[in-house]
Amino acid sequence: MSELRERDAMICRSCGEEERASEGYPCKDCGTFICIMCVFKGVVRCERCNAVAASAPPAAASHSTSSHAAPAPQEMDWPEH
Ligand SMILES: [Zn+2]
Ligand SMILES: [Zn+2]
Question: Does residue 16 fall inside a structural domain?
Answer without folding.
Answer: yes
